[in-house]
Specification:
Elements lengths: L27 E4 L4 E3 L6 E6 L23 H17 L2 E7 L3 H11 L4 E4 L4 H5 L4 E4 L2 E4 L2 E6 L2 E6 L8 H14 L5
Helix pairs in contact: 1-4
Length: about 190
């Protein structure tokens, strides 16, 4: 178990409408791997981890970032999914990251962290608004709250909200998938 030094998010009920069976919106998002991805058109299972913002070396965090519960941790969360990516692949589960940052910002992150999966850009909040994803504001900018979706053939199978701590989240998701897929409960 990790010891996370920043404030933990609280379940405010902001994701109670995100329930199993919910159809994903058919909205094409720019992907760092090239082209576009629609969550509705995904075939098979996919983890879509939603995160607020990833920093860049030399770039200051948004205002009051250290005080916002759940704001910190996007880069460690991304790295967790990167490090465990072969394990998700072995289970037949695709991995995507999604935030409101644009493709150029995501491209830099994907190259710097050597990501084997796509980051999806939703700067206009089309998917975020269609799903009414939880958001917060700081410095006059809206950011997505951390949330993870397990999508199967374009429909929600399960959601995790709030996500905490972000640095061990990928490991927790993988353990749950291993348990449930292998014993047939998610067949």
């Amino acid at each position: 178990m990790s010891v996370w030094p920043y404030p933990a998010p609280v379940d405010r009920g902001a994701a109670r409408h995100i329930v199993p069976g919910l159809a994903m919106p058919d909205i094409a998002l720019d992907a760092t791997t090239g082209g576009n991805v629609s969550l509705f058109r995904l075939s098979g299972r996919a983890i879509v981890f939603v995160y607020p913002w990833t920093g860049r070396p030399g770039l200051a965090n948004p205002p009051d970032w250290d005080l916002i519960p759940g704001a910190h941790g996007s880069t460690p969360e991304v790295e967790g999914f990167r490090d465990l990516y072969p394990n998700f692949q072995a289970l037949g589960v695709a991995v995507y990251g999604l935030s409101g940052q644009d493709r150029a910002h995501h491209g830099e992150l994907a190259a710097r962290l050597r990501l084997p999966f796509a980051l999806l850009s939703d700067p206009e909040r089309r998917v975020a608004d269609a799903l009414a994803l939880p958001q917060f504001e700081t410095g006059g900018v809206q950011y997505l709250e951390r949330l993870t979706l397990l999508v199967r053939d374009g429909r929600l199978e399960r959601a995790w909200y709030p996500v905490h701590p972000p640095d061990s989240h990928a490991r927790e998701i993988l353990a749950m998938l291993n348990e449930h897929i292998q014993d047939g409960r998610m067949a």
